[in-house]
Amino acid sequence: MRTLASADSLLDDVAAAVRGDASCGVLATGRFTPAAEAGELSAAALFAGPSVPVTVRFSSAVGGFGGFGGFGDQGLAVRFHVGAEQDMDLLASTLPVLAVRNVLGMLEFLRATNSGDAAAVSDFFGRHPEAATAMALAEDALPAESFTGVTYHAVHTFGLVDEDGRTTWARLSWEPWWPLAPLSREEALGRPADYLTRGLAGRLPSGFRLVARFAGAEDLGVLHDPTRLWASGAGLMAELGELMLDGVGVGESPDFDPLRLPLGFEAPRDDLFGVRVAGSPS
């Protein structure tokens, strides 16, 4: 594992973990077409239709979240090119929750998991029981067959603000058109290290549905807690639109910014949202 040398590098890792920046990535292009119900929930221009172009970056963090647990996490960052200061960036990953609730906790987590000291890791979990859900999911995660075949979660709870100013809090996810069964760890290790990136072109065209899940009564106490899964069932959801990807992108990656939110969205209220890092992601 990499040794972290300074507070600045720790803060950079916090931003990378929260934003979904990763060790390797590949761009794709396509279009997002909103569903009719999306315009009723949010006044955002990207939901006004009929469709908007998008730039997407798929990424893969080998070794799992923070270098601990699981085979690896995949990331999906989407730039909606709406124009007139209505562009939006939505960052998501295959892990549906975070390990900690705030920046201090994230710093402690990264120090422990990058220390190489099993006692430090054990001590961290003893002091942060909220990390148990994320770590259990990371440990059980299997390698993806393709970037296009897995679900990505935005993790944080976003406010969808309608034309009358009413806010509906929701968690957003990208669900694949064609889900793919995961690989075994042995199968993945037998492939080139960049098999996900290299294999993207052969999977296109492909796409995802943008789904909003709403909190049930039992979830209100953890509405803005990114370490907790919601108990609400499948009935408390709406489809916001479809993302169709038809080509591999070229050039430099956009500077994806979780704070790039248009009118029609209210920013998440948890303490980790909006942590930023200088410089462009990989």
From TrEMBL:
Listed Pfam families: Catalase (PF00199)
SMART domains hit by this protein: Catalase
PROSITE patterns found in the cross-reference section: CATALASE_3
InterPro entries: Catalase (IPR018028), Catalase_core (IPR011614), Catalase_sf (IPR020835)
Spans traversing the lipid bilayer: none
Catalase core domain ranges (all copies): 3-281
Domain of life according to the entry: Bacteria
Protein name stated in the entry: Catalase core domain-containing protein
Organism annotation: Streptomyces blastmyceticus
